[in-house]
Protein backbone atom coordinates (compact mmCIF):
# COMPACT_ATOMS: atom_id res chain seq x y z
CA UNK A 1 0.00 0.00 0.00
CA UNK A 2 1.09 3.61 -0.63
CA UNK A 3 0.96 6.39 1.98
CA UNK A 4 1.48 10.09 1.28
CA UNK A 5 4.66 11.87 2.33
CA UNK A 6 2.66 13.88 4.87
CA UNK A 7 1.29 10.74 6.53
CA UNK A 8 4.74 9.14 6.64
CA UNK A 9 6.16 12.32 8.21
CA UNK A 10 3.45 12.21 10.88
CA UNK A 11 4.19 8.54 11.56
CA UNK A 12 7.87 9.42 11.92
CA UNK A 13 6.97 12.00 14.57
CA UNK A 14 4.93 9.41 16.46
CA UNK A 15 7.80 6.93 16.14
CA UNK A 16 10.26 9.43 17.62
CA UNK A 17 8.10 10.00 20.71
CA UNK A 18 7.49 6.25 21.01
CA UNK A 19 11.25 5.63 20.84
CA UNK A 20 11.84 7.97 23.78
CA UNK A 21 9.09 6.31 25.84
CA UNK A 22 10.29 2.82 24.91
CA UNK A 23 13.83 3.54 26.09
CA UNK A 24 12.55 4.90 29.41
CA UNK A 25 9.78 2.48 30.29
CA UNK A 26 8.54 0.48 27.29
CA UNK A 27 5.08 0.65 25.77
CA UNK A 28 5.86 2.78 22.72
CA UNK A 29 3.70 0.46 20.64
CA UNK A 30 0.69 2.04 22.37
CA UNK A 31 1.39 5.02 20.10
CA UNK A 32 2.79 3.52 16.91
CA UNK A 33 0.41 0.61 16.31
CA UNK A 34 -2.79 2.72 16.59
CA UNK A 35 -1.13 5.42 14.44
CA UNK A 36 -0.31 2.89 11.71
CA UNK A 37 -3.82 1.47 11.80
CA UNK A 38 -5.31 4.97 11.71
CA UNK A 39 -3.26 5.55 8.53
CA UNK A 40 -5.02 2.57 6.96
CA UNK A 41 -2.40 -0.13 7.53
CA UNK A 42 -4.01 -3.57 8.15
CA UNK A 43 -3.56 -4.94 11.72
CA UNK A 44 -1.03 -7.70 10.97
CA UNK A 45 1.04 -5.40 8.76
CA UNK A 46 0.83 -2.70 11.45
CA UNK A 47 2.21 -5.09 14.08
CA UNK A 48 4.95 -6.30 11.70
CA UNK A 49 5.94 -2.78 10.63
CA UNK A 50 5.95 -1.68 14.26
CA UNK A 51 8.35 -4.52 15.08
CA UNK A 52 10.68 -3.24 12.36
CA UNK A 53 10.77 0.36 13.55
CA UNK A 54 10.83 -0.52 17.25
CA UNK A 55 13.73 -2.94 16.71
CA UNK A 56 15.81 -0.08 15.31
CA UNK A 57 14.74 2.18 18.18
CA UNK A 58 15.57 -0.48 20.76
CA UNK A 59 18.96 -1.08 19.11
CA UNK A 60 19.61 2.66 19.34
CA UNK A 61 18.73 2.63 23.04
CA UNK A 62 21.03 -0.36 23.58
CA UNK A 63 23.86 1.54 21.89
CA UNK A 64 23.18 4.58 24.07
CA UNK A 65 23.19 2.57 27.30
CA UNK A 66 26.25 0.57 26.21
CA UNK A 67 28.27 3.74 25.51
CA UNK A 68 27.64 4.74 29.11
CA UNK A 69 28.75 1.34 30.40
CA UNK A 70 25.29 0.35 31.61
CA UNK A 71 25.03 -3.09 29.96
CA UNK A 72 26.93 -6.20 31.03
CA UNK A 73 26.87 -8.06 27.71
CA UNK A 74 28.81 -11.06 29.04
CA UNK A 75 26.43 -11.69 31.96
CA UNK A 76 23.33 -11.23 29.82
CA UNK A 77 24.46 -13.02 26.65
CA UNK A 78 22.75 -16.29 27.62
CA UNK A 79 19.52 -14.59 28.77
CA UNK A 80 19.49 -12.70 25.45
CA UNK A 81 19.85 -16.00 23.58
CA UNK A 82 17.00 -17.36 25.71
CA UNK A 83 14.85 -14.35 24.79
CA UNK A 84 15.60 -14.90 21.09
CA UNK A 85 14.79 -18.61 21.09
CA UNK A 86 11.76 -18.09 23.32
CA UNK A 87 10.39 -15.39 21.03
CA UNK A 88 10.88 -17.54 17.93
CA UNK A 89 9.05 -20.40 19.63
CA UNK A 90 6.31 -18.00 20.69
CA UNK A 91 5.87 -16.66 17.15
CA UNK A 92 5.78 -20.23 15.83
CA UNK A 93 3.17 -21.20 18.44
CA UNK A 94 1.10 -18.11 17.61
CA UNK A 95 0.42 -19.54 14.16
CA UNK A 96 -1.04 -22.70 15.71
CA UNK A 97 -2.80 -21.61 18.93
CA UNK A 98 -5.39 -18.89 19.58
CA UNK A 99 -3.79 -16.32 21.93
CA UNK A 100 -7.21 -15.01 22.95
CA UNK A 101 -6.95 -16.26 26.53
CA UNK A 102 -3.95 -13.97 27.11
CA UNK A 103 -6.12 -10.91 26.46
CA UNK A 104 -7.79 -11.62 29.78
CA UNK A 105 -4.66 -12.69 31.67
CA UNK A 106 -2.25 -9.90 30.71
CA UNK A 107 -4.24 -6.95 32.20
CA UNK A 108 -4.22 -8.75 35.54
CA UNK A 109 -0.47 -9.33 35.35
CA UNK A 110 0.13 -5.69 34.44
CA UNK A 111 -1.95 -4.52 37.40
CA UNK A 112 0.04 -6.79 39.73
CA UNK A 113 3.21 -5.22 38.34
CA UNK A 114 1.80 -1.73 38.98
CA UNK A 115 0.96 -2.71 42.57
CA UNK A 116 4.52 -3.97 43.04
CA UNK A 117 6.07 -0.67 41.95
CA UNK A 118 3.59 1.33 44.04
CA UNK A 119 3.99 -0.58 47.32
CA UNK A 120 7.55 -1.92 47.09
CA UNK A 121 10.36 0.09 48.66
CA UNK A 122 11.84 2.70 46.37
CA UNK A 123 14.00 0.94 43.80
CA UNK A 124 17.69 1.53 44.34
CA UNK A 125 19.88 3.02 41.65
CA UNK A 126 22.48 0.38 42.57
CA UNK A 127 22.40 -3.35 41.88
CA UNK A 128 21.74 -5.64 44.84
CA UNK A 129 22.44 -9.31 45.49
CA UNK A 130 20.43 -11.52 43.15
CA UNK A 131 17.90 -13.79 44.81
CA UNK A 132 18.15 -16.36 42.01
CA UNK A 133 20.98 -17.86 39.97
CA UNK A 134 22.00 -17.55 36.30
CA UNK A 135 19.91 -20.54 35.17
CA UNK A 136 16.78 -18.98 36.66
CA UNK A 137 17.59 -15.71 34.89
CA UNK A 138 17.85 -17.47 31.52
CA UNK A 139 14.63 -19.39 32.16
CA UNK A 140 12.66 -16.32 33.25
CA UNK A 141 13.79 -14.23 30.28
CA UNK A 142 13.18 -17.09 27.84
CA UNK A 143 9.62 -17.37 29.18
CA UNK A 144 9.02 -13.63 28.70
CA UNK A 145 10.62 -13.90 25.26
CA UNK A 146 8.11 -16.63 24.40
CA UNK A 147 5.33 -14.31 25.55
CA UNK A 148 6.77 -11.47 23.45
CA UNK A 149 6.72 -13.58 20.29
CA UNK A 150 3.32 -15.07 21.10
CA UNK A 151 1.43 -11.96 22.20
CA UNK A 152 3.76 -9.10 23.14
CA UNK A 153 2.11 -6.21 25.04
CA UNK A 154 4.03 -5.31 28.19
CA UNK A 155 6.95 -7.70 27.58
CA UNK A 156 9.54 -4.99 28.29
CA UNK A 157 7.74 -3.97 31.48
CA UNK A 158 7.66 -7.58 32.64
CA UNK A 159 11.39 -7.94 31.98
CA UNK A 160 12.20 -4.81 33.96
CA UNK A 161 10.03 -5.92 36.89
CA UNK A 162 11.63 -9.39 37.00
CA UNK A 163 15.15 -7.96 36.84
CA UNK A 164 14.40 -5.58 39.73
CA UNK A 165 12.30 -7.87 41.94
CA UNK A 166 14.02 -11.24 41.48
CA UNK A 167 17.52 -10.51 40.23
CA UNK A 168 18.53 -7.46 42.26
CA UNK A 169 19.17 -4.92 39.50
CA UNK A 170 18.73 -1.22 40.16
CA UNK A 171 15.95 0.37 38.12
CA UNK A 172 18.23 2.16 35.64
CA UNK A 173 20.35 -0.96 35.20
CA UNK A 174 17.21 -3.10 34.76
CA UNK A 175 15.92 -0.66 32.15
CA UNK A 176 19.20 -0.78 30.24
CA UNK A 177 19.42 -4.57 30.27
CA UNK A 178 15.73 -4.86 29.36
CA UNK A 179 16.49 -2.99 26.13
CA UNK A 180 19.21 -5.52 25.29
CA UNK A 181 16.96 -8.49 26.05
CA UNK A 182 13.96 -6.93 24.34
CA UNK A 183 16.06 -6.25 21.24
CA UNK A 184 16.83 -9.96 21.05
CA UNK A 185 13.17 -10.98 21.34
CA UNK A 186 12.11 -8.26 18.88
CA UNK A 187 14.60 -9.41 16.26
CA UNK A 188 13.37 -13.00 16.57
CA UNK A 189 9.73 -11.96 16.08
CA UNK A 190 10.72 -9.60 13.26
CA UNK A 191 12.52 -12.45 11.49
CA UNK A 192 9.33 -14.53 11.49
CA UNK A 193 7.22 -11.58 10.27
CA UNK A 194 9.69 -10.72 7.48
CA UNK A 195 9.61 -14.33 6.30
CA UNK A 196 5.82 -14.08 6.32
CA UNK A 197 5.98 -10.98 4.10
CA UNK A 198 4.02 -8.73 6.46
CA UNK A 199 6.47 -5.80 6.86
CA UNK A 200 5.80 -2.54 4.98
CA UNK A 201 9.38 -1.45 4.33
CA UNK A 202 8.59 1.94 2.73
CA UNK A 203 6.76 2.97 5.89
CA UNK A 204 8.80 1.08 8.48
CA UNK A 205 12.26 2.30 7.46
CA UNK A 206 11.49 6.05 7.74
CA UNK A 207 9.82 5.34 11.08
CA UNK A 208 12.92 3.38 12.09
CA UNK A 209 15.11 6.45 11.47
CA UNK A 210 12.93 8.51 13.80
CA UNK A 211 12.82 5.68 16.34
CA UNK A 212 16.63 5.55 16.41
CA UNK A 213 16.77 9.23 17.36
CA UNK A 214 14.07 8.73 20.00
CA UNK A 215 15.82 5.69 21.44
CA UNK A 216 19.10 7.57 21.81
CA UNK A 217 17.39 10.47 23.55
CA UNK A 218 15.44 8.14 25.83
CA UNK A 219 18.59 6.24 26.86
CA UNK A 220 20.30 9.54 27.66
CA UNK A 221 17.34 10.73 29.73
CA UNK A 222 17.10 7.41 31.59
CA UNK A 223 20.64 7.77 32.89
CA UNK A 224 20.19 11.47 33.67
CA UNK A 225 16.84 11.32 35.51
CA UNK A 226 17.02 7.80 36.95
CA UNK A 227 14.23 6.05 38.83
CA UNK A 228 12.37 9.23 39.80
CA UNK A 229 11.02 9.40 36.25
CA UNK A 230 11.32 5.76 35.10
CA UNK A 231 9.21 4.36 37.95
CA UNK A 232 6.13 6.61 37.50
CA UNK A 233 6.39 6.35 33.71
CA UNK A 234 6.54 2.56 33.96
CA UNK A 235 3.40 2.57 36.12
CA UNK A 236 1.63 5.00 33.78
CA UNK A 237 2.42 3.05 30.61
CA UNK A 238 1.34 -0.20 32.26
CA UNK A 239 -1.99 1.33 33.29
CA UNK A 240 -2.52 2.71 29.78
CA UNK A 241 -1.72 -0.67 28.27
CA UNK A 242 -4.14 -2.35 30.70
CA UNK A 243 -6.89 0.10 29.72
CA UNK A 244 -6.22 -0.46 26.03
CA UNK A 245 -6.38 -4.25 26.35
CA UNK A 246 -9.57 -4.10 28.42
CA UNK A 247 -11.21 -1.75 25.91
CA UNK A 248 -10.79 -4.18 23.04
CA UNK A 249 -14.01 -5.98 22.03
CA UNK A 250 -13.84 -9.66 22.85
CA UNK A 251 -11.44 -9.28 25.76
CA UNK A 252 -12.37 -12.20 28.09
CA UNK A 253 -11.94 -10.14 31.27
CA UNK A 254 -14.01 -7.30 29.84
CA UNK A 255 -16.75 -9.70 28.75
CA UNK A 256 -16.73 -11.34 32.19
CA UNK A 257 -17.43 -8.05 33.97
CA UNK A 258 -19.95 -6.83 31.38
CA UNK A 259 -21.93 -10.03 31.81
CA UNK A 260 -22.22 -9.47 35.56
CA UNK A 261 -22.62 -5.73 35.96
In total, the number of strands is 0
Order of helices and strands: HHHHHHHHHHH
- Helix content estimate: over 70%
SS strand fraction: under 5%
Low-pLDDT windows of residues: none
Structural category is mainly alpha
Family: Belongs to the 4-toluene sulfonate uptake permease (TSUP) (TC 2.A.102) family.
Transmembrane segments: 7-25, 76-94, 100-120, 132-150, 156-175, 187-209
Keywords: Cell membrane, Membrane, Transmembrane, Transmembrane helix, Transport
Organism: Luteimonas notoginsengisoli
In short:
By secondary structure, the protein is mainly alpha-helical. Helix content is 76%, strand content 0%. The chain has one domain (5-251).
Descriptive account of the structure:
The protein has 261 residues and is mostly helical. The chain has one domain (5-251). The protein has eleven helices and no strands. The longest helix has 25 residues, at 43-67. The chain is globular, with a radius of gyration of 17 Å.
Name its key features.
transport; 261 residues; mainly alpha; globular
Tell me the layout of helices and strands.
Elements: H1 5-24, H2 29-38, H3 43-67, H4 77-94, H5 100-119, H6 134-150, H7 155-165, H8 171-195, H9 201-225, H10 227-247, H11 252-258
Helix pairs in contact: 1-2, 1-3, 1-9, 2-3, 3-8, 3-9, 4-6, 4-8, 5-10, 6-7, 6-8, 7-8
